[in-house]
Structure formats: structure tokens, C-alpha cells
Amino acid sequence: AREKRARRTGGLALPIPTWRRQIEFRGKTAVVTGASAGVGRAVALRLAREGAKVALIARDKPALSQLKAEIEGKGGEALAIAADVSDAAKVVAAADEIESTLGPIDGQPLNVMSNDLA
Fold first, then answer.
1. Which of 72, 77, 98, 100 is the most buried (most CB within 10 A)?
2. What does the alpha-carbon distance between residue 5 and residue 10 come to, in Å, rounded to a whole number?
3. How far apart are CA 35 and CA 111, in angstroms?
4. Within 10 Å of residue 68's Cβ, how many Cβ atoms?
5. What is the distance between the alpha carbons of residues 84 and 6, in angstroms, rounded to a whole number?
6. CB of 34 closer than 8 Å to CB of 110
7. Model confidence over 63-84: pLDDT tens digits?
């Protein structure tokens, strides 16, 4: 395994980060904002693959529906909520829906989209 990591890292035999071994997502409820595309979508897919119940929040409802179907098609559990996180009332409503559908939210929401307009 060390040689394989060394090949992938250009000859450096880097250890597996401690944090990666300690985080357990199975059965946890995770919230990902900006989940409809790019990094947010990738994070949501990874969390689902690791066994988390994933709440997907973004403004693009069709993309969220497609991602939800993809996660559920692979045996995961997801909830898609079309909302603009700059609207506090929508965030509170989303949190209520998440907790009533998936259970208590574990940890902080993962905001993977940020720009000057948000």
C-alpha cells in the first residue's frame, strides 16, 4: 500500500491523514449547500457513499432532483431542498424539514459554494 501511495504522490510515501480515519459518516445526517453542481455535488455523493443521510440544498431544483435520484439509485438516502441560503427564513424552514425527514443534523452544514453575490 505504501508503494502504491508513493507512486500516486510522485515518490512521496505520505501517511493516510489521521482525520480521515476518525470520521464516521454512516447513519449521520449531513447537510450540503451548493449541492447541485461541482464540488458540492461531489461532496454529497461522497457522503452518501460513506453512509450518511444527505440533505441537498441549492437553488437549482432539477439538478437537485437528479442528484437525489442518483444517490437513492445507489442505495443512499437523500432529501432535496430548493432554497437560497441567503434567505434566513428558508434556511430555518430547510433545517426543520431536514430534521423531521432525516433526523437530527450531525455537525455543521457543509457550504461548498461561495461567491461575492451570495
1. 98
2. 9
3. 9
4. 21
5. 43
6. no
7. 999 999 999 999 999 999 999 9
- Dist. CA 101–CA 113, nearest whole Å: 24
- Reading the block at residue 85, the C-alpha cell is 441560503
* Cα 55 to Cα 21: distance, rounded to the nearest angstrom: 23
Q: Is 54 helix (H, G, I), strand (E, B) or coil?
A: strand
Is pLDDT above 60 for 18? Answer: no
CA 114 to chain CA centroid, Å, is 15
Residue the block writes with cell 464540488: 39
pTM (2 d.p.)? 0.75
